[in-house]
Amino acid sequence: MTMRLTPAHLDMATAALRTVLPLQRPADSLLRHFFQDNRKLGVHDRAFIAEIVFGILRHRFFLERVVEIATPRSLLLAYLAKFSGMNLRELTPLVSETEAKRLAEMKAVSLESQPLGVQAEFPEWLLEKLREFMDDGAILDLGRSLQAPAPLDLRVNTQLATREEVIELLRKDGIEGMPTPYSPLGIRLTGKPAINRHEAFMSGKIEVQDESSQLLGYLLAPRRRDMVVDFCAGAGGKSLMLGALMCSQGRIYAFDNSEKRLNNLKPRLKRSGLSNLHPQLIANENDIKVKRLAGKIDRVLVDAPCSGLGTLRRNPDLKWRQSPQSIEELKCKQTAILSSAANLLKPGGRLVYATCSFLPEENQEIVENFIANNPRFTLLNCAELLRQQKIPLDTGVFMQLLPRLHGTDGFFAAALESGKAQT
Ligand SMILES: C[S@@+](CC[C@H](N)C(=O)[O-])C[C@H]1O[C@@H](n2cnc3c(N)ncnc32)[C@H](O)[C@@H]1O
Fold first, then answer.
1. Is 356 a known active-site residue?
2. Does residue 45's CB lie within 6 angstroms of at least one atom of ligand 1?
3. Are 11 and 52 in contact (CB under 8 A)?
4. Cβ–Cβ under 8 Å, residues 419 and 376
5. Which of 27, 60, 254, 365 could form a disulfide with 317 if both were Cys (CB 3.0 to 4.6 A apart)?
6. Active-site residue, selected from the candidate residues 247, 306, 332, 356
7. Is 43 helix (H, G, I), strand (E, B) or coil?
């Protein structure tokens, strides 16, 4: 924490926590509303509050364990003392004598003395799931890597600029960025500048997109004149990338059953300058618009609705918003969507199934069950597909990315090829 804190900062952050911590909705949406209701807050105040709120959510299990009574203020003070880099001398003038005494006791509690779930910051139900396929050391590594904030990655829209040009453009305005290690279109920024006010963003030269999801475009590898379906296009992050990889040729249908999300694609599409992308609202995976395209599509992307646990660095509140029941429901959706999406493929066509989850039940198990029931589909080797694109990333047949190993969100992808229809 670089700014000098005042009691007013503590009050502001406490008020924000009071709004967000009950987690009645996603934390980022609650925080956005808090900022809308407190319009006078400046840029630095907002950045401070966001850092505090997300920091507390990332370390919530530990903090709740060491405070006497978990209130927004006690969690805030404990977070500042333990995780923000502030020392007690700086904090003491801002707090009461009793609070100062409690903070000193709490500061002495070592993280390493805590149970695995607290050290890894995973709820019991998730710990139980992870123990089915990971040992405790690997669980701890995973948990710790998900407690760090995520970097900000950009994707360059090659229709409008090269990566080198964008890096130079940003540098001129004091924004430092480096090429991402794997995606040829990615830039990893230093820090979190407000990039959506930059000219390069407003003119469509860049989009915010984690490197892991950029790699999906290279696994799918659409050719210029292909017919492509992005089955769960949402706000179109991946569709836009596919459009640029196809040099604005061919045709991409961006399906989603959420009108709100597809509406968010519209301004991005306009900025991108692409003319090959067609958003289509569908009621569900069995919509007539889907059925009409059966057997006609060269490439299908299924960026399936999932638990999102691989994005805990950005969305730490998912630990409280997901549950074993919600994951069961997601698995049913994933199975149904994959099955409908696969029907779209021409013989020889390619489908990429992806999630931002690290749970095999949402990933390998969905794909392996699908292939067992649909033997005309074969599994392609993701490492080989990436090698064909000159991307040296070998995580085996499936692409499985983890923050600690790859610097990306936790991410999974499988590539399938459709064979001839069974007679
Ligand atoms: C992981 S998100 C996709 C994010 C998106 N690809 C992007 O890059 O921004 C999953 C999406 O699936 C959509 N979805 C959920 N059920 C669906 C269904 N039955 N058919 C199509 N889309 C669905 C959700 O609305 C959500 O936008």
1. yes
2. no
3. no
4. yes
5. 27
6. 356
7. helix
ipTM score: 0.98
287 is in an annotated binding site: yes
Question: Cα 261–292–264 angle (5° rounding)?
Answer: 10
Q: Where are the domains of the chain?
A: 7-114, 212-418
* Helix segments in 5-71, DSSP class H: 7-20, 27-37, 43-58, 60-66
Tell me the pLDDT of the chain (423 aa) as tens digits.
Answer: 667 888 999 999 999 999 999 999 999 999 999 999 999 999 889 999 999 999 999 999 999 999 999 999 999 999 999 999 888 999 999 999 999 999 999 999 999 999 999 999 999 999 999 999 999 999 999 999 999 999 999 999 999 999 999 999 999 999 999 999 999 999 999 988 989 899 999 999 999 999 999 999 999 999 999 999 999 999 999 999 999 999 999 999 999 999 999 999 999 999 999 999 999 999 999 999 999 999 999 999 999 999 999 999 999 999 999 999 999 999 999 999 999 999 999 999 999 999 999 999 999 999 999 999 999 999 999 999 999 999 999 999 999 999 999 999 999 999 999 997 554
Find out whether 17 and 52 touch, Cβ atoms under 8 Å: yes
Type of residue numbered 11: D
Ligand 1 proximity of 279 Cβ (cutoff 6 Å): no
Assess contact for 20 and 49: CB atoms under 8 A: no
Q: Ligand 1 centre from 252 Cα, in Å?
A: 15
Record the tokens describing residue 35, joined without a space. 């900022």
Q: Which two tokens stand for residue 82?
A: 């333990």
- Stretch (H or E) spanning 303: strand 297-303
Indicate the CATH number of 212-418 among 3.90.25.10, 3.40.190.150, 3.30.460.10, 3.40.50.150: 3.40.50.150
Q: Which atom of ligand 1 is nearest to the CA of 261?
A: 27
Strand-strand pairing, 186-189 and 251-256: unpaired
